[in-house]
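Changelog-adjacent note: as of this version, every example in the card shows the full chain rather than a window. The one below runs 540 residues end to end.
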Amino acid sequence: MGFARACSVALVGVEGVVVEVQADLEPGVAAFTLVGLPDKSLVESRDRVRAAVVNSGAEWPQKKLTVGLSPASVPKGGSGFDLAVACAVLGAAERIDPAAIADVVMIGELGLDGRVRPVRGVLPAVLAAAEAGYRHVVVPEQTAGEAALVPGVSVLGVRSLRQLIAVLGDEPVPEEPAAGRGRPDTMLAGLMVPGAGLGTGLAPLSADGAAHRPDLADVAGQDRARKALEVAAAGGHHLLLSGPPGAGKTMLAERLTAILPPLSRQESLEVTAVHSVAGILPPGEPLISRAPYCAPHHSATMQSLVGGGNGLPRPGAVSLAHRGVLFLDEAPEFSGRALDALRQPLESGHVVVARAAGVVRLPARFLMVLAANPCPCGRHTLAGAGCECPPSAVRRYQARLSGPLLDRVDLRVEVEPVGRADLMGSGGRGESSAEVATRVREARERAAVRLVGTPWTTNSEVPGHELRTRLVTAPGALMAAERDMERGVLTARGLDRVLRVAWTVADLRAADRPDASDIAVALELRTGILRGVPAQAGAR
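Full-length structure tokens:
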């Protein structure tokens, strides 16, 4: 009787569980049994592994073979277990030393010819292996750069099972031809889900298109909206842009990521892990360093927004926009269930999706931007534009954005139609994204210094208790906000969010703490009621 074991990783959401792949050979009729709660794609690995082993020059054992995946209670799916299953079988057949694979984590799909094909979710799988104490990982050659992002782990990238057998047996490593030049590498097909990232802003820019990124200087006029965009980026505040069609709401939202600071190392790993699991991580970009941008269509379902699907839930739009921007254009056209499902991730920064197959916790700390028209036809606020919507239709349309959802939005800006002077360039070109991004980065650095020693890094994350006790404003600065709260214009949550925005405005003008003018700017951005504050108030 022969026995051997190898290790692989099962992904549950964006978290991994190390799975021990055990192979047992016994005398009897040749058979291959796979146990341990596998799904359909994993059951089919029996035929893939057998063909790959034979075509790699190794002999398939003609005995009763049982392969167990432990722990058996964890659901397992995907083709990433093929490499571990093949090595466990070869170890049980003594083709390779069982001790050489006992503590090695193997991730990869096998082709029938023995080639090792890349799979999605390599980064979170290697992170889980490192947290479990494993230090040696074998992955497909195409995803070796992604796996190497995890510190303290030795990564071996292989092209074929034949190469891996030679490495484990201290034999000469055979040369494997690379993919044919002049045509796409078919081995990378398993990394990208067809259509994923297209039309959502998640598809990466090519080297040729890097110079054509949307710039904030392209926006004509809109001083107040540009200022709100800068405050949103500096403090991580949610934003509502309302106004008639063609005023520039979508243009502003598309340029928000250009003024956000680059992701930190930890944030980059978090975003890369989510995109790797979702199948939208580009093969040539193993580490995402800039904030993602996700703009789902208004016909998106609740499951596509917060996560879901058959079996274990998969990341939704809120997770794909983690540490970036989630733009909901034509927000009132989204279903009420889908919009109300955003309340919990807006507060907690994560999504907990419960299904019959299990409960998954997905990261979802994003900056939400809503764009809405004033009425179904969009001409309600335009003088002489001929809006024919009855008052009841306007009320119903505006009521689609529920009060609890809007209460979580820090900034509300009315985007006015662009005048002829601004549109034709007579008013001068506005600031570029690089200039605004410099102020945003400096403001975030001031906030990070103030919040050192706490679990928060931006003003939007600070709880209200800390804002009212430890982070004190200037004397008499809150008088206007207190009056609004007594009149019912502000809720308790609204007061906390006004304080957060005021701290961001103070950071933008390099002040030690907010004063009455900063509170006035925050109240105007929060309530939409003009208070006589200049559009550039708070800027340095």
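Structural remarks: The first strand starts at residue 2 and ends at 12.
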